[in-house]
Design the sequence.
């Protein structure tokens, strides 16, 4: 089958030709499955927005985008804990089924009342306040919260509550009238949504293909076909771009941008991504139980130097766990994390540290510059007397009891401190559940006020308390918001939108266009 590069495709469009407008993306990573409910990975987040819709949409062109209708045309709080939503009619799934309240209730309750273990994890860390969804009529649903919810629209805009078809999903395996775990496993490899592009091919970890869905309820998708191919090495992605094998590539570090800028046929778009690369520390490891040792590990890291060396100064080094995207909850005045090697030496002495080896585990390629950062951090530790070692593995070890420190990321899953710090570090959240972080009654009390108060100032005060706890008994150090770039053919006009969660490949109408020459 003949494939036309973006430049060729543009010409055919302008000429009114019947040839397809196709785009090839070279991606550092390609997901192994596509299920918006179970996924919260940086890799997976690339692939949902083109395929699925939420009930409530946002204006992603803005840092703090206003909410607007999507699959729900209106929503009203009918009781303090009950939201009623009117659904858009004439919406079709990619398999041709009509979307009704039954599909919406099924989609929401698979998360709110989760029985599938991966859904239970996502439900617990961000949707625990929701009790159930119920059908009122074919195009009206009600959602019941357990207590008054200050973040209704925010949590209805989550990837995890994108809408999927009930009958199709139940019919994938076993009893077609029952939603079984095997159905959800099968769905993740044969996903169906209501978005402008249907996934027509998925080779886990290797290839994903979108094709325009002509029955999409909204504005027509601008591309006929998008093929995303796994190209793990930066050099191979840049070569693919130069040779025309790819039209757009992901995850270009700042030190590679000169190669793009030197080629008149190419260009780049980038931003400080809405996530933190972090160093996590196991508070329950025998060597690290004394919080003064973990404080020293954190105080020894010169994050500004890391930024200059690895990101050419383009990353954002935070004073605390906060992002501008949090709006009224943005709190840069807090000073939770700092560089103080002298204090680090003092704390090590006070803690009676005797030179025990502290292992920093790192993925080899998953995080841009992740391994380089790990190597630099271990050298910084050495300067204050910490005996560090880098251990490179290709699997997640955050739940292993013998894990000491490692690289990770804290993405902004939604634009609120709860959607970044909170998802990871809540009482009984992923970090505590994996055994490397501890909370107590005082932490939980601060958390409750932060999470559920309707008053912004009360939430800010409670968040400051949580950050003080993190400072004194640290389980993590946010290193920086990495500056990630996407490189592309000069005729492709695309850039990450400020209101999206990290890494979203948004190819909807208005998000991508092509130059005419």
Sequence:
């Amino acid at each position: 089958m003949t494939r036309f590069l973006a430049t060729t495709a543009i010409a055919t469009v302008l000429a009114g030709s019947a040839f397809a407008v196709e785009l090839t993306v070279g991606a550092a990573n390609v997901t192994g499955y596509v299920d918006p409910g179970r996924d919260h990975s940086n890799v997976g987040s690339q692939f949902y927005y083109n395929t699925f819709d939420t009930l409530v949409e946002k204006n992603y062109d803005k840092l703090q985008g206003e909410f607007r209708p999507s699959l729900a045309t209106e929503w009203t709080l009918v009781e303090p804990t009950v939201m009623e939503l009117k659904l858009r009619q004439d919406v079709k799934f990619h398999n041709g089924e009509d979307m009704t309240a039954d599909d919406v209730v099924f989609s929401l309750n698979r998360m709110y009342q989760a029985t599938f273990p991966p859904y239970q994890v996502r439900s617990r860390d961000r949707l625990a306040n929701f009790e159930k969804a119920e059908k009122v009529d074919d195009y009206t649903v009600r959602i019941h919260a357990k207590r008054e919810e200050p973040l209704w629209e925010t949590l209805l805009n989550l990837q995890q509550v994108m809408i999927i078809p009930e009958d199709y999903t139940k019919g994938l395996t076993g009893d077609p009238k029952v939603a079984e775990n095997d159905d959800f496993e099968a769905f993740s490899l044969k996903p169906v949504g209501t978005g402008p592009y249907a996934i027509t091919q998925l080779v886990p970890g290797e290839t994903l293909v979108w094709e325009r869905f002509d029955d999409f309820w909204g504005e027509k998708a601008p591309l006929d076909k998008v093929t995303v191919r796994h190209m793990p090495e930066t050099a191979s992605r840049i070569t693919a771009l130069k040779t025309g094998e790819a039209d757009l590539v992901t995850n270009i570090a700042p030190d590679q941008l000169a190669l793009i800028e030197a080629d008149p046929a190419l260009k780049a778009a980038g931003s400080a991504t809405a996530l933190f690369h972090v160093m996590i520390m196991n508070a329950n490891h025998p060597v690290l139980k004394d919080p003064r040792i973990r404080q020293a590990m954190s105080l020894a890291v010169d994050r500004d130097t890391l930024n200059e060396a690895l990101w050419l100064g383009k990353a954002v080094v935070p004073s605390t766990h906060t992002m501008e995207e949090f709006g009224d909850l943005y709190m840069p005045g807090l000073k939770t994390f700092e560089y103080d090697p002298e204090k680090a030496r003092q704390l090590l002495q006070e803690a009676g540290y005797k030179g025990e080896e502290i292992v920093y585990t790192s993925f080899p390629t998953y995080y841009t510059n992740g391994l380089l950062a790990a190597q630099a951090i271990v050298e910084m530790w050495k300067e204050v007397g910490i005996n560090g070692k880098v251990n490179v593995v290709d699997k997640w070890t955050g739940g292993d009891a013998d894990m000491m420190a490692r690289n990770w990321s804290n993405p902004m899953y939604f634009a609120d401190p709860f959607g970044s710090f909170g998802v990871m570090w809540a009482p009984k959240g992923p970090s505590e559940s994996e055994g490397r972080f501890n909370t107590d009654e005082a932490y939980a009390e601060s958390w409750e006020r932060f999470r559920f108060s309707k008053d912004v100032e009360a939430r800010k005060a409670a968040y400051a308390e949580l950050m003080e706890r993190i400072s004194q008994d640290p389980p993590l150090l946010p290193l920086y918001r990495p500056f990630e770039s996407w490189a592309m053919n000069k005729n492709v006009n695309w850039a990450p939108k400020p209101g999206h969660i990290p890494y979203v490949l948004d190819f909807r109408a208005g998000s991508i266009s092509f130059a005419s020459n």
Summary: The chain has three domains: 23-50+195-273+484-516, 52-181, 275-480. The domain at 275-480 is CATH 3.10.105.10 (Dipeptide-binding Protein; domain 3). The longest helix spans residues 456-472.
